[in-house]
What does this fold into?
Amino acid sequence: KAGVTQTPRYLIKTRGQQVTLSCSPISGHRSVSWYQQTPGQGLQFLFEYFSETQRNKGNFPGRFSGRQFSNSRSEMNVSTLELGDSALYLCASSFGARTEAFFGQGTRLTVV
Amino acid sequence: ELKVEQNPLFLSMQEGKNYTIYCNYSTTSDRLYWYRQDPGKSLESLFVLLSNGAVKQEGRLMASLDTKARLSTLHITAAVHDLSATYFCAVDTLQGAQKLVFGQGTRLTINP
It folds into this structure.
């Protein structure tokens, strides 16, 4: 059974640019949630999508956005990158709310 | 707002010893997860605790949940070097969406 796939694994961007990260969930999972991990703030919830609808959003600025496609794949976008956006971005897939979440390998974003 | 606190945050121990990591959370929840993270890697699911009094064991690790005390413990028995990692607890927020609130993580180092 294939796990959660995130692409790309590593990314280096310049301040002011935008970036799109992709997440393919486990087959049959309809919920995809995104988390940001930094040494200072730890693991923080960004947002969750279920059946192409955003159900919950964390406390991040509007520069962070996402979407989900009909095949449950999800993308997150960060516009006008700042140095502080450098982090490991993890996506998790699950069947739905309150079910076990399985995490992808993450995308390590470095903003220079 | 749900807050999750782990202690200790850093733990250095010798092989063969026993120790416990504590996870306290601030509001009602009946669902708690433990994850392991190796440096630069993603989160690996260890335990899913779904009800008060739940106890799960896998090898040298045992996790328990007391929803009345809002406390979970991860007990390590006769530690071995391979268990060196960062351990996170995460609490389900009881909302209608998939959202986990994570503790700060406990960095466990096991010395020969």
